[in-house]
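dude i think i finally got it to work??
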Amino acid sequence: MKRIPSVLALTLVAAASLVLISCAKQTPGPQPMTEAEQIARGSYLTHTSGCNDCHTPGYFYGAPDTTRLLSGSELGWKGPWGVSYARNLTPEPQTGIGAWSESDIVTAIRTGKRPDGRMLLPPMPWPDFAHFTDDDAMAIAKFLKSIPPVSHKVPDILPPDGTVTGSAFVLPPPPAWDAPRTPPAGQAPATP
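look at this
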């Protein structure tokens, strides 16, 4: 008779253990994306995040030239930092970002820092892009490395006192509400 309670207790402990193990069983997470899936994700993100708006010629004029996708623009952005131009993001090694590694691209997207240490200038919204997940930032880098290289050197950045010879969006001086965080002339905005 003493054996029955012991056997019953062992059976109950074993059954409870199995229930706990089955409840604790982890469901597998999403499978890693293939490179083709990463590139497709990067394409989606660059299109929905507005990268094409600035970096593809003709976008602001209602006639984007997708044969020169992300090859930079000659439309300047003039503000307290000077005049900046949307750079060539194609993998062309001399005029684009072909010499940048995927890691360099991810760093620029997330921190606003170029491989040479210089900061990306406005209107590049890297503080917003800093919130991309690691997977999303890498997907963008893989997409940029996959597009056709286009040889196009955009105009050089001009200092605040530089003269714009082409078209430019000109931002007026900041109102008092916006002025407290406005950087001195010629400097990129501080990290948020």
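The chain has a mean pLDDT of 87.
im so relieved honestly
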